[in-house]
Amino acid sequence: MRAVIQRVSEASVTIEGLKKSGIQQGLMILVGIEDNDSDEDISWLSSKIVQMRIFDDENGVMNHSVKDVNGDILLVSQFTLHASTKKGNRPSYLKASKPPVAIPLYEKMIQQLSADLGKEIFTGSFGADMKVALVNDGPVTIIIDTKSRE
């Protein structure tokens, strides 16, 4: 799994002109899924996200997690995170999982994040043409790939 994590002061997803979900302070996460991702990847990534200390404490030092600040999470599936740009000018998405594999893993990720955070996770709609808006706070943007954790 590959995730782009952004600390936000607000973020939302709109589909066909209707706002599906939105958050204020928290994390906007784009997640890409590949066929060899597992429950272990989900568990590790979720724990890492919820415990990552990227929110400021009273001294302006990044010492608090999204859980510590009672922030929200907006999770959006994005297969383009697994784009290969090695050949030519058209990215290849062969590493990205197809819906029969990706959807169940995405749903497990939602459940795991919700359990780890202790509250509802906001989402986009898998496979939809979404308009994602956000105000990156900091800016703070972190990329995590579960295959690069060693």
UniProtKB/TrEMBL annotation:
One of its GO terms (biological process) is D-amino acid catabolic process. Homodimer. This is D-aminoacyl-tRNA deacylase. NCBIfam families: D-aminoacyl-tRNA deacylase (TIGR00256). The keyword tRNA-binding applies. GO terms for molecular function: D-tyrosyl-tRNA(Tyr) deacylase activity; Gly-tRNA(Ala) deacylase activity; Ser(Gly)-tRNA(Ala) hydrolase activity; tRNA binding. It catalyses: glycyl-tRNA(Ala) + H2O = tRNA(Ala) + glycine + H(+); a D-aminoacyl-tRNA + H2O = a tRNA + a D-alpha-amino acid + H(+). An aminoacyl-tRNA editing enzyme that deacylates mischarged D-aminoacyl-tRNAs. Also deacylates mischarged glycyl-tRNA(Ala), protecting cells against glycine mischarging by AlaRS. Acts via tRNA-based rather than protein-based catalysis; rejects L-amino acids rather than detecting D-amino acids in the active site. By recycling D-aminoacyl-tRNA to D-amino acids and free tRNA molecules, this enzyme counteracts the toxicity associated with the formation of D-aminoacyl-tRNA entities in vivo and helps enforce protein L-homochirality. GO terms for cellular component: cytoplasm. It is found in: Cytoplasm. A Gly-cisPro motif from one monomer fits into the active site of the other monomer to allow specific chiral rejection of L-amino acids. Belongs to the DTD family. Its EC number is 3.1.1.96, 3.1.1.-. A motif (Gly-cisPro motif, important for rejection of L-amino acids) lies at residues 138-139. Keywords: Cytoplasm, Hydrolase, RNA-binding, tRNA-binding.
